[in-house]
User: Fold these one by one.
Assistant:
Number 1:
Amino acid sequence: MPSETELLSRFAALARVIGNTPMLAIDFFFRGRLRAVYAKCEHLNLTGSIKDRMALHILRTAYVSGRLTPGDKIVEVTSGNTGISFAAIGTALGHPVTIFMPDWMSTERKQLIQSYGARVVSVSREEGGFIGAIRKTEEMASDESNVFLPRQFSNCANVEAHELTRGREIWLQLGNSDLVPGAFVAGVGTGGTVMGVGRFLRTARKDIRIHPVEPAESPTLSTGCKIGHHRIQGISDEFIPPILDLCQLDSVISISDGDSIVMAKTLAREIGLGVGISSGCNFSAATQIQNDLGGDAIVVTVFPDDNKKYLTTDLLRDEPVRDGFLSPQIKLTAIRVLPRVCQMCDALPTALRSYLS
């Protein structure tokens, strides 16, 4: 079990390899006109996904409040990336980690979680899928006294993590290049990204549009319940998360999973960005919103994870191009990197020290 000094040192080290990700301007032709969409490269965080920010902040907040203490078990439900983040960060802080995950997620996700020493418990559709997995974690917490549940779908610290870090980074990185965002779009898993980033950007600019994105094949947000199946792992997880407030957001954007796969392939093959399927989805959604606002509109999105978590999925298989896809109309030409902001997590050890001392 780490000492106070060791714990503070570990938190400080983690804070320096999570966040402050690059912001790319991606130049492309769409229907014959040159445009640019801006994307935060969240696939360049510690474990290769957007969830590292949330996992670190939730654990930090839990330590400060006293809900998490050294040696406690961390137990969470995930579609993959969150489990990988808690497995890595929890292990780095000296915690045993157990992850409950639906059994239809990619093999890579399960193996990556296990590679960090965490235990994976697979939950089938017959056992209740996501809802069943959440129930199992609650039962485990009631049976054992030293279990901490991050509860990513309902924990307000999830939203706060994205508001305090990525939202501020987006505003500063664009501002350093004299750019003002007109819209932000992001796929919804827990809702933490779109709610947190949206909250910060709306504080800075009240009329900015904030659009949640969902798979066209499974319009959970639009219908209020689970309908159909889709192939964009990490979003539309069978229910509307408690931390997501659609009344605070603009219209829901639907993107086909096939279009998302083709777009992710295009990002890798044309400009060397090896990102996951949800990144392709977000880029297509950003292009759609930019088309609505006008080609010169500054539209920002995120690339949530890398392509290494999809090697056994349809991302690496031939995908037929269908009528209505946006991706075939997009010709990527170049990427430009906006200046990063200074590291903004240096206060983390101070907050922890006030609790631990």
Number 2:
Amino acid sequence: MRLRQLVIATSEMDLLADSICDLFELKRTFSDPELIVFGLQNVLIPLGDTFLELVTPIKDNTSAERFLKRRGGDGGYMVIVDSVDLEKERKRLEKVKMDIVWYENRKFDDIHGQSLHLHPKQVGGAILSIDNMKPASSWLWAGKEWEKDINKSLVSHVSGVNICSPDPNNLLSNWEKALGRKRSLDKTSIDLSGSSINFVINTQSQSEHISAFQIHTAKRLEIEKRAVSRGVLINNNIHLGGVDFLLVE
């Protein structure tokens, strides 16, 4: 199991996508017409074989629209992990009484994509989706041609996500149950293959939400200079779409 896609809900999808792609020298790759079932439009941006997704509501009273109103603006919305055996994960979730609120089962040509969305109130902090692709190297949510749009000149992949809470230990317990993974030795994160989900204290409010994306790079200083020139380096952190982009080397 590994972190595969992180999602931002935004009211200005095109503007935010342009800003992210400009800063990190990335490219848009795909917009999924199937998201209309959720009242959303989206765009996918590949970082290697991991992805940033931006979603924006186009219908009233969608969950994303309510999220934006609660947040008072853009913010981290969803965490998607890629699993090896989705049926095994489904049986495990039933055993620990974690509710599945959406099951996506989509086939296109030679690709079969499946997705389990867990009940947000049982997990906390973000919507969690456990997915599976056949073949494993594919990612149907980004279409079939996303590999041509990969650019690793500045960043290589999504390597982690930080979720904050006034009680991060309790939130971490929920995610252990949801993912079927035990916390790391430092008791503050869940380690996945080549990535991690990290739980940090929120001292500002009682809110639980995604606070940061971790992006792997070998060119931290160059990116920080670009961020300064674009006015998005705030308190020594790159801030876009309501989340901090933390550069990990």
Number 3:
Amino acid sequence: MSIQVSNLVHPFISLSKIFPIEIISEKNKAIVVTGSNGSGKTTFLKLLLNELLPKRGKITVDGDIAFLGTKNGLKPQILLRQQLPYFLAKNVTFLWPHFLNMQYQELSAGQQRLVALWLILQTVKPIILLDEPFAHLDSSSRNMAYTWLNAKINSQKTIVFSHHNLEELTEINGLQVLDLNQH
């Protein structure tokens, strides 16, 4: 249940720009990958997922990965009730029963993101990667999401997520910062 990245180099956006990174992440830790737009946050997550290959370096992932990208992964025209069995164990109660008979596309962007984030955090997989997980969330929903994230960090999960504003993340425990602007 760990991720190890050493001496990583990958060209992105501008082929002359590279980022060498050396980190070790273990359970009970969360790593936030931060940086300005275009700094490589999503690229870094795709490298961890093995969707992109590094030019140099080594990435070792010990454990299965659950991933939530910028698209929420639910089918827009299908009722939530029909989609939940793919995400939830039978003994998990869905937090929003009033959404069950709605198509996913009927929810607001914030509601869609909140549902998708909650569902991915229900995974039994030990490693969770999240690309901008708090996008479209209002402050109340973000606080709820921070509580869920803290609970998962405390339950032996390794979590890596991208976010652009560190000042918003003071409520998250065990946070290690990987700032791509510094590389």
Number 4:
Amino acid sequence: MYKCAIIGVSGGRAAGLAAAYAHVQKGRLVAVSTRTEENLHAFGERFDVAARYTDYRQMLAREKPDLVHVNTPPDVRLEVFAAAEEAGVPAVLVEKPVAIQGEDWRAMRDFAAGAKVKIAVNHQLHFHPRRQRLQDIVHDGKIGAVQFIEASCGMNLAYQGTHTLQAINGFYPKGEPVRVLGQVAGADGLIDTPRKHFAPDQSMASIEYADGLRAHFVSGPFAQRVLPDDERTNVHKRIAVYGTRGYVHWTMWSWEVGIDGQVERGKHAYPDEDILGQAAMTDALLDWIGDDSALHPLQLQLALRDFNILLGVYTSALEHRPIELPFTPGDDLIGRLRATLSQRR
């Protein structure tokens, strides 16, 4: 049984990480770390974790975990990766978004190129049981050759947009993005906060792949509402994949499959799917620890490719042109977006 730990338990997301261990088959949660002592002990009591630290480096040295969940703001994640590597931690599962802008994306790309620690990004939707079944339908060719993909989310690119980009990759893993054209609007999401989840309020983009396929996505208030009467912004993630024989459509709360004119549809409970997805994602990373060939589908290199698309959207919007992918992003994209979008209020 692998030993697992969480760095950063003061936010609500950490509870989902811990609760999933009721379903994780190959690991157990043995230690937690956060800077605020009151939050640390409340979390430890809630999830019956005795080993508690306000210094995550001490936790890594003393507990020697096999897997560490990194639930920190993105501006310190590279620091934690380096500390995990130095401590000999085999694997890290990090919350999204993996980066903020071009500077830390480049640094993370360079770190990943030589890292020994195995890193995956917490896009647990990929492992939701319903998503897995729909992805299998597409991968098995049951809707025919994929022709077009469109996806959306109710929150901005930093909060949910990377889920959307990963969903496109999850349904179409053979796709090689070569060009993106993007547009953005709204500066409220660029205001500095402790979470460092910076993004324009709304984004829209078209991605071109090497084989000619296009994927289109929208994030923010302009995106399609999954639950029309629900004013919450976080409940509207969805993706539809269209092929020569039919389509699949997944939302946080429902699903639909149409093949050769025959349509099936149904509903699911997102919280129930989410805890199982989190557990399956964790077990998959534990499998990768023991088997180098068991590559995790959410490995850091793929997340960095998706984030390169996101940075391409920002650059395209600022420079009013399509961006060839992959590309090396310039500096201070967030500052440039703040300056440009704030003038348009």
